[in-house]
């Protein structure tokens, strides 16, 4: 009997970012429609909705596939994912026109200026969050579906 471990790995992987994106989209809609802050939600949410859940699912499939060959804990494995997604998101934001690079800072939506030194701690925060999500949520779901 074929138990489809990669399909189960993909489904376990996409759960957490899908729920998080529903919450984020609700926040964007409230911010735009209730608080009347002009955030171009259509342009901003496309990358996370299209890429992040699929990246989580594919990354979990790669984890299940590579598990016999390496002993990397799932939290550490998941913490590597933002090191791929953040540069892709930055490139997409620059190409999309809502991030402009300057000498000392970058500008979001032609209105918000953020110094570069703020980005490095945020990357560490992202890595820590991904570590916790992968260790506790994706790892738990992998156990539930029987692929851990």
Give the count of helical stretches.
6
On the 0 to 100 scale, the average pLDDT is 87
Shape: globular
Radius of gyration: 17 Å
Order of helices and strands: HHHHHEEEH
Please give the number of β-strands.
3
Low-confidence stretches: none
Kindly report the spatial arrangement of strands forming the biggest sheet: 1-2-3
Class from helix and strand fractions: mainly alpha
Distance between the termini: 19 Å
Counting structural domains, the number is: 1
Helical residues, percent: 55-70%
**Quaternary organisation:** single chain
Give the DSSP E fraction (strand runs of 2 or more residues): 5-15%
Largest sheet: 3 strands, antiparallel
Describe the structure concisely for a colleague.
The chain has 148 residues and is mainly α. The protein contains 6 helices and 3 strands; from the N terminus they run αααααβββα.
What does this structure look like?
By secondary structure, the protein is mainly α. It has one domain (5-144). The chain has six helices and three strands, in the order H-H-H-H-H-E-E-E-H. Helix 1 (5-34) packs antiparallel against helix 3 (46-66) and helix 1 crosses helix 6 (119-144).
Secondary structure layout plus pairing:
Layout (H helix, E strand, L loop, with lengths): L4 H30 L6 H4 L1 H21 L7 H6 L2 H15 L2 E3 L3 E4 L3 E4 L3 H26 L4
Antiparallel strand pairs: 1-2, 2-3
